[in-house]
Amino acid sequence: PIVSKEDFLIINYESHSQLKEYKTDNAQLPLKQFVYCEACNTPLTGFLVKQKGLYYYKCRTKGCSCTKSAKKLHGQFEERLSNYQVDPKYADIIKEVMVYTYDSVTKEIRENEANVKKQLSQLKSKIDTIEERFAIGEIDKEIYIKFKAKYESEEKKLESNLFSSTISSSNLQIAIDKALKMSSNLSELWASGDFPQKKKIQSLVFPSGIGYDKLKGKVQTKRVNSIFSAIPLLSMDLAKIKSEEPVNFNQFSAFVTLTGAKSNHILKVLMALKALK
């Protein structure tokens, strides 16, 4: 009552206009929370030194002196990414190896999937038959309920085991082409990308993040995406093969599988690649 409507609206507007938005993401610090301190295994955060206009990464653990210039850490990260770049002259053969490997490691799953679908089809036929027999009065309600419940229970169990981890040939080709295209200029792609693109590339190539060793002043990786880790090693082995000599696909397929490229993992990785811009 003591404040006019006009004054109330003005004051209310001014108080709201003074509220600030705080964002945790910073385009200048794409490795924030992605890089962790090797000494205490804590994700690094970041800050700006206003006097210098420079950004730094630092460990949040009390007493830990792990601090690194953002510019220098980004340079080291780009250098690490460049290790997984493919020589364009090997791109076609590496693509063939990847397709061959994927087909090999998913063969058992495809066969199991076909078997489960066959059993499901047989159960559906049994359910249809028992429903028809009940409808025409060949069996009583008690027997109908008993066997229908039995068949439906078996059906649910089979459906829970039905896991399709295969993708179409065209999608596979698209995903592998994208992987090889990315790998041809991986470090440049990260450096020139916007914040979301940088984050996607980071998590795709290094799923477990990367560590920074303050004593050695270097970045370290415990886990590299199997597709990208295989590319430089395949390139080195292919370089040893003389011109016009046949390529042993089984040899390379076994190598890729041993590095961890299992079927369900490959599927997730390839679909993630396909989703990237």
Report on the structure:
It is a single chain. The chain has helices spanning 5-17, 70-82, 91-105, 107-135, 141-161, 169-184, 186-192, 195-205, 226-240, 249-258, 263-275; strands at residues 35-37, 44-49, 54-59, 67-69, 210-213, 218-220. With 277 residues, it is mostly helical. It has a three-stranded mixed beta sheet, covered by helices on one side. It has a three-stranded antiparallel beta sheet with strand order 2-3-4. Helix 3 crosses helix 10 and helix 4 packs antiparallel against helix 5. The longest helix has 29 residues, at 107-135.
List the helices and strands and how they pair.
Blueprint: H1 5-17, E1 35-37, E2 44-49, E3 54-59, E4 67-69, H2 70-82, H3 91-105, H4 107-135, H5 141-161, H6 169-184, H7 186-192, H8 195-205, E5 210-213, E6 218-220, H9 226-240, H10 249-258, H11 263-275
Helix pairs in contact: 2-7, 3-6, 3-10, 4-5, 6-11
Shape: flat
Number of strands: 6
The quaternary organization reads as single chain
SS-derived structural category: mainly alpha
Which regions contain 5 or more consecutive residues with pLDDT less than 50? 15-22, 255-267
Number of helices: 11
Task: Write the element-wise H/E pattern from the N-terminal end onward.
Answer: HEEEEHHHHHHHEEHHH
Main sheet: strands, sense, barrel: 3 strands, mixed
**What's the mean pLDDT score?**
78
Strand line-up of the largest beta sheet: 1-5-6
